[in-house]
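Dear colleagues,

As part of the handover before I leave the project, I'm documenting each prediction I ran so the next person doesn't have to rerun anything. This entry is a single chain, and its sequence is reproduced below.
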Amino acid sequence: MNKKKKSTNTSPYPDEVIDRLARTFYPAILACWNSEEGQREFAAWQAEQAHHANKKEIQEVPAGELPAVHIAVICGFNRKFYKQCNSQQLVCDMQFTVVANESNRELRWHTVGDEVAWFAEHIRENEVPSDGLVLIYDDISYGQSLGTTAKFPRDSFAFKWEDEVRKTTIREIEWSPSRTGLINPVAIFDPVELEGTTVSRASVHNISIMEELELGIGDTVTVYKANMIIPQIAENLTRSGVSEIPKECPVCKKPTKISMENNTKTLYCMNPKCQAKHVKSFSLFASRDAMNIEGLSEATLEKFIINGYVKDFTDIFHLDRYEAEIKTMEGFGEKSYENLRKRIENARKTTLPRLIYSLGIPNIGISNAKMICRALGEDPKRVIRATEEELSAISGVGGVIAGTFVEYFKVTI
């Protein structure tokens, strides 16, 4: 019988915690506590970090690589931690950056409001953008005893900061065609800084929203980022009136039509041969969540379509018929063609939800495709022969989605 190896851990923390952190964050951490040599190495590493920090030296990042920063939020590795602050203190001791917290202050119910206000004021000075604040009970056992709702733990309270809003001026309304024929209005405005990035455009989504905002060129508007990501127009301060709605598609120059769907006005290109529809459809087919064919960009697809190499989805898997022609195209050569060929070959092995999503069925995103395929047993025959009644019975799939799904396969099969 093998004897259990005696621990050489001299830290105040359990072996399993040190081991977990060592494997997760910094491979040398365990050695740092378990040997004099390791401790010397770790001390030297700490000194080096402090030296760089004091001199404010910036390490050169190799081309094509982005710097990554790890900031610990909650570190609950083991139930032997009785307090949230203990786990954070452990990571602090290891010289990792920990998110700003008030665990060292004695918070009471009557001071919580002041502390939230303090964070709201100081978050503007934070180097890393933050979208909110979480208050959590420090006593881990008590917090766990409160249980959870269907989605969230009951030991925490979350606050969202007010959205960062900037004032700017509309310079242009761009109309952007999609693969379904829908033409979306996009507001182009003077660049502003929002949540750490420069923003100069925001989708207005449809004609109804344009009318509601009375949006026109030259208007002064306020803009923000929904969920700190998607630029949106918050308010139109001048309301000059809706800009002229284009009567022809900006791509194929064929007539457009205003359609009313679910009490929403939308603009469509009515030309079934519109190049934008083809390019966008093939682009979706090759996208990451669909067939994941890296390198098959919209610009490349446009060239293939114009040259007659691609007329439907299956043609993508037979581009070898035009190998000689593709290799002579601008931007292509022996190596780039071979890379594309390999990626296309890899795309032959995929999942049913990816394939369904790649077809570009109206209202069917990758999430809906996964739901439908899972409910129908990942069976291709059942999926393409599904009735509206079967689909409507699936949680999360309504009548509209069921109708467009069935109609697609009724027409194409």
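Residues 5 and 251 are 72 Å apart (CA to CA). The longest strand covers residues 182-194.

All the best with the project,
I.
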